[in-house]
Write a structure and sequence with these properties.
Blueprint: E1 2-5, E2 8-13, E3 25-29, H1 40-47, E4 52-56, H2 71-85, E5 90-95, H3 97-109, E6 113-119, H4 129-137, H5 139-150, H6 167-185, H7 191-201, H8 205-209, E7 216-221, H9 233-239, E8 242-246, H10 252-255, H11 257-272
Helix pairs in contact: 1-11, 2-3, 4-5, 5-6
């Protein structure tokens, strides 16, 4: 599905079903150097089980044009996308950087946000200065480091989801594709730097939490080395969420796609039922 926002195309995958605004809405938000494809299993399932699904490409990522945005600006962009799509109310599901953007969008939408699910989240979402320096000097090396830290296993489900698939290989390929595609559109630009700097700079939890009117769920990876479950105390204090912990790392949707789906589905039940 293509929409027009701020003079640029905005893409959202609808899960293989036409968007029906009469159904309960679910908006999926990817993380740094990712696109809508990280939510394929969860978005397709919900689209075929009674939900209107939008799995977005954020500005500057995938099929959406424009420049990458700071977290608060991306939250406002998402709220405008909900309006443009025709959805009256929707749940927001975000991964990593996308979890903070989903939080900001929930604050913008107020009563129009029916649920907020923050996957592999943390606050503050601090980024090592050494990682930011590495991405400016050797972005492929920075991608390889993040990829190694994001995955706690070499194969899942088992063998993710069949022999010949690679969790590490597919995640690295996606990040490299996002980085290079953006550089083609914006020469000398560095999407890795933009995304990870946006995570590091975000300081809006208290202001956003005061405006959130929906139930909140955190879905965390017990082995997460990127956004440690120990770094969620401010989120728990501010949002009073339900917490689901899965036995995997930061790349939860690849390592435990069914567990993530079950957690999301449970979080949506009060909102849609």
């Amino acid at each position: 599905m293509k929409l027009e926002l701020d003079g640029h195309g905005a893409y959202a995958y609808t899960g293989g079903k036409p968007l029906d605004p009469a159904l309960p809405g679910v908006l999926f938000v990817h993380g740094a150097l990712h696109d809508h494809s990280v939510w394929i299993l969860q978005s397709r399932y919900l689209a075929h089980h009674g939900h209107a699904v939008l799995a977005v490409d954020l500005p500057g990522h995938g099929r959406s044009g424009g420049m990458p945005l700071a977290v608060d600006a991306a939250g406002r962009w998402l709220a405008r996308l909900v309006e443009a799509s025709g959805l009256h109310r929707c749940a927001l599901v975000g991964h990593s950087m996308g979890s903070l953007i989903a939080l900001e969008a929930a604050a913008q939408l107020g009563e129009r946000a029916s649920a907020l699910v923050m996957v592999a989240t943390a606050y503050p979402m601090q980024v090592s200065p050494k990682l930011l320096e590495l991405c400016r000097r050797d972005v492929d090396a920075a991608i390889d480091l993040v990829n190694a830290l994001s995955n706690s296993t070499h194969a899942a489900k088992p063998s993710h989801p069949a022999p010949g698939f690679s969790i590490h290989g597919s995640n690295r390929a996606l990040m490299r594709r996002m980085q290079r595609s953006y550089a083609l559109a914006q020469p000398q630009a560095n999407l890795f730097d933009a995304d990870f700097s946006a995570c590091d700079a975000y300081a809006g939890l208290d202001a956003a939490a005061a405006k959130v009117r929906c139930p909140v769920t955190l879905v965390l990876g017990a082995k997460d080395q990127m956004t440690s479950p120990k770094a969620t105390a401010p989120l728990r204090a501010a949002l009073k969420p339900q917490v689901v912990t899965l036995p995997c790392g930061h790349n939860l949707m690849a390592e435990d796609p069914d567990g993530v789906l079950r957690a999301i589905d449970k979080a949506l039940k009060p909102a849609s039922g």
